[in-house]
Amino acid sequence: KNFPPAVNFKSDFDPLRNMQRELRDINGDITDNPSDAVDTTYWNWGASNFRFFALDLDGQETMDPYYRYTLKDTAEGDPDITYLAGDPEADPNLGWIQVNFPQTSSEVKEFEIFLNNAPAGGTAVLTVAVNDEANADTRFHFGWEVREPSGPVLYIPDNSGPSTKTFYRDFLAGQYGAGGWNEYSFWYGYPDHSYVLIESMRKFEAVLWADGGSTSPRLEEAAQTGGVLAQYLNPLQGQDPGRLLLVSKGVVGNLSAIPHPFLKNVLGISPSPSPVTEITTVAGKAALGLQDYLPALTSFSGFGKAVGLAQPAENIPKAVPVYQMELCVRCYGLRPPYDPVVGMRFPDYETATLASVVTLSLQLEYFNSGEAMAAMSAILSEELGVGSP
């Protein structure tokens, strides 16, 4: 008796880690609260990785030494085209991709599939096929919803609270129109593979990453040397570089776990805050824009926090300040400088007309809403070159 091969996800792989989650309440409105949800949709922008195992109870020698996968609909018949792995023309939307199993003596074959161009606008179905010498053909199918990017900006709220999320969502809706932007939420923590995050980000002109305070594990991992953010901003494989607006009151100092090489080489700022202690905003005092198109930001609260930014002395090119608190002796803290820098762009204007990244180290939701939204609009359009529709 012949046993057909078996193929399935590895036991520690959960495809939902690579998905976004949309919750709707009884009225059909999108909600953040799982307890209000009566309907849940899982989807992404087409970038995913999948980890599998395959085995044959008759022995690995009876199983074909390769597996095949495709995104083409096999319900209407198998694709006519088979590409070998490594073929520059290989496209799983058009045919099979045939890949040899990794060389191993194990009876259980483990392999991983990476996809970036799953067709958007509906349900994509990945089919994986494993065969044996008796022509037994085992198929594994997995379907999920794939959506097109809705606009130029991807908002990552990370560990922000509800009021902070509302502030940024209102800004993006006003800037790009309702449904004219997208949000990436870490519902299940970091994706199964960093590939999913980087390829999702590359579908957008810019990323607005708003960290709620102390560095989250997601931001810390994304900022590792050679990690997601470095690859997004400075790609090595010919992709267009992305742009980043990073807002975090804990980007440097005691609350920060961002690696120092990322701070110095990618953001262009010193790991040491200036002043050394956290800043407290003062109602009525403003952060001043240092370019004509950057409006002043007037604080309405003494509860906002920030951290002063400084340039590493050795950096060439340098980051340059774009926002600085108005001078007020001992208003924001006891240590000088009393007019701390709270916004930097990198690189400087002499090196590049457009910035690669702008870092703001204050809580914009504690400033005049109209001014803060005008400032973000100016940063995105004038500093980062992100167009409006």
Describe the 3D structure.
Strands 13-12-14-15-22-21-20-17-18 form a 9-stranded mixed sheet, covered by helices on one side. It is an alpha/beta fold and 389 residues long. The protein is built from 6 helices and 22 strands. The chain is elongated, with a radius of gyration of 25 Å. The longest helix is centred in the middle third of the chain and has 15 residues, at 162-176. Helices cover 15% and strands 28% of the residues. Strand 2 and strand 3 form a beta hairpin.
**Which value, in Å, is the CA radius of gyration?**
25 Å
Class by alpha and beta content: alpha/beta
Task: Report how far apart the termini are.
Answer: 63 Å
Helix content: 10-25%
Parts with pLDDT < 50 across at least 5 consecutive residues: none
The strand count comes to 22
- In round numbers, the mean pLDDT is 93
In short:
With 389 residues, the chain is of the alpha/beta class.
